[in-house]
């Protein structure tokens, strides 16, 4: 990476930022929870902060409510070194909320309050196009595809970024409760599939999108398309599989004591993007790519060892100490 922040290439993350309300006690239902702690979240925002915490340059594009929570979230982005130039505030809609239950194994269940929330109301004419055009990598999920006008804003932002030469990165980040139906979720997630050059899916998302019970190479490669440079399948505590035009393989996980899996995938994506934003040739060099994926696996693992996504996202020195200790 370049040494001074001014020289670093920009990673722009597009989509939703919200507040997760996480129970003070793990392993209970929402109804049984004695209390909740508010934790800022939203996958695209987590990715932007993950990038910044690792020393990269990041901006977030999205819409928040013109309310205390919305301004709090914008403040958290700025405190974490993420540019907030792409944020709009909606005076008529609230910032999205999600109540999250942590099962005893650290996995999550969600209940969302979005009817509609500000992030869903971002319009194409509100996009900061200059910021989007300056991105070297443009990263997004699929939640912004669920309803208009945000869907049109998402498609416009992708198009503008691509025309300006950005690499498109996609993590569908499936949240089924937000979609009208499973069929609609699959259809819309796949509707922009062939645009992205880097795609990361979890093992569960792979099975959902392919209808298969397997997470083998054949299943993964059924999602391959000609524009892709890298397809990643994350396997939680089993590491990850990678696929390119020329090679494929798997990278082992780091074993840690997982407390909360929130943000682990976003941390992994942030680490990945940071490591090729200035040098895309990494994607064609298997030895270097494996090093990057080992680094990304370490980031994801560290993120599971603390509650909440953003507080748990690691710095480069924390990642290096885990890498050196193994």
UniProtKB/TrEMBL annotation:
Query: The Carbohydrate kinase PfkB domain covers which part of the protein?
Result: 9-315
In the record, biological process GO terms are:
fructose metabolic process
EC nos: 2.7.1.4
Question: Per the record, what are the reactions this protein catalyses?
Answer: D-fructose + ATP = D-fructose 6-phosphate + ADP + H(+)
Keyword list, A-Z? ATP-binding, Carbohydrate metabolism, Kinase, Nucleotide-binding, Transferase
Whether Kinase counts among this entry's keywords is yes
* GO molecular function (one): fructokinase activity
Pathway per the UniProt entry:
Glycan biosynthesis; starch biosynthesis
Keyword flag Transferase = yes
A single GO CC term, please?
cytoplasm
Any matching Pfam family:
PfkB
Q: Which family does it belong to?
A: Belongs to the carbohydrate kinase PfkB family.
**Function comment:** May play an important role in maintaining the flux of carbon towards starch formation.
What protein name is recorded for this chain?
A: fructokinase
Q: Which organism is it from?
A: Brassica campestris
């Amino acid at each position: 990476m370049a040494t001074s922040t001014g020289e670093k290439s920009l990673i722009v993350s597009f989509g939703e930022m919200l507040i997760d309300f996480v129970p003070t006690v793990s392993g209970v239902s929402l109804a049984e929870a004695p209390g909740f702690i508010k934790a800022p979240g939203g996958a695209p925002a987590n990715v932007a902060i993950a990038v910044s915490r690792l020393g990269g340059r990041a901006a977030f594009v999205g819409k928040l409510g013109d309310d205390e929570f919305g301004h709090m979230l914008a403040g958290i982005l700025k405190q974490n070194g993420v540019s907030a130039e792409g944020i709009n505030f909606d005076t008529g809609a609230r910032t999205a909320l999600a109540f999250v239950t942590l099962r005893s194994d650290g996995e999550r269940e969600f209940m969302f309050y979005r009817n509609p929330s500000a992030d869903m109301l971002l319009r194409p004419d509100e996009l900061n196009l200059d910021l989007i055009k300056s991105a070297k990598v443009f990263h997004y999920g699929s939640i912004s595809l669920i309803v208009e006008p945000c869907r049109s804003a998402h498609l416009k932002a992708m198009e503008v970024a691509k025309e300006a030469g950005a690499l498109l990165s996609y993590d569908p980040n499936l949240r089924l409760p937000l979609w009208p139906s499973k069929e609609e979720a699959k259809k819309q997630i796949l509707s922009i599939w062939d645009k992205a050059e880097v795609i990361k899916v979890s093992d569960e998302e792979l099975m959902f999108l392919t209808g298969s019970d397997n997470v083998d190479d054949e299943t993964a490669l059924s999602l391959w398309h000609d524009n892709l440079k890298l397809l990643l399948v994350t396997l939680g505590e089993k590491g990850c599989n990678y696929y390119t035009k020329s090679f494929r393989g798997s990278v082992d996980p780091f074993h840690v004591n997982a407390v909360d899996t929130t943000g682990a995938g976003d941390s992994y994506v942030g680490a990945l993007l940071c490591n090729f934003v200035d040098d895309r040739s990494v994607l064609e060099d298997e030895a270097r790519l494996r090093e990057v994926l080992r680094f990304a696996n370490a980031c994801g693992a560290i993120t599971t060892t603390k509650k909440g996504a953003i507080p748990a996202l690691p710095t480069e020195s924390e990642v290096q100490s885990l890498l050196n200790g193994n």
